[in-house]
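Re: that backbone. Tokens:
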């Protein structure tokens, strides 16, 4: 099954579409993205996430809280870009959560 995906950094949402122009979309908060894994060699690629597509043959794994998603790109460069984008989403979300927690603790200290 071909999936189309996009990251929306404005709303911190990862969208997965089952078809290119589909209205049916699955949404995942950036906070649910736990890690991204890109195969380091052809053996890992062949045994772990081999693609049947002739166009999208460069796979990578996105681990979410509730499930794993196997996604594919058209080239190694594109896969690396997506991997970096997911890493950025993970890191930026953790940083925002840390800032919110610190601000909450600070405001509770002022209220006492």
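Recovered sequence:
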């Amino acid at each position: 099954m071909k999936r189309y995906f996009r990251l929306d950094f404005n709303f911190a949402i990862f969208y997965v579409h089952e078809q290119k122009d589909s209205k049916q979309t699955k949404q995942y908060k950036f906070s649910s993205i736990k890690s991204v894994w890109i195969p380091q060699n052809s053996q890992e690629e062949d045994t772990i996430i081999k693609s049947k597509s002739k166009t999208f043959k460069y796979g990578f794994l996105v681990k979410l809280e509730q499930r794993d998603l196997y996604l594919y790109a058209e080239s190694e460069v594109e896969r690396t870009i997506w991997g970096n984008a997911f890493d950025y989403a993970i890191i930026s979300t953790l940083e925002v959560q840390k800032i919110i927690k610190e601000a909450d603790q600070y405001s509770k200290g002022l209220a006492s």
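The first strand starts at residue 4 and ends at 8. The chain has one domain: 4-111.
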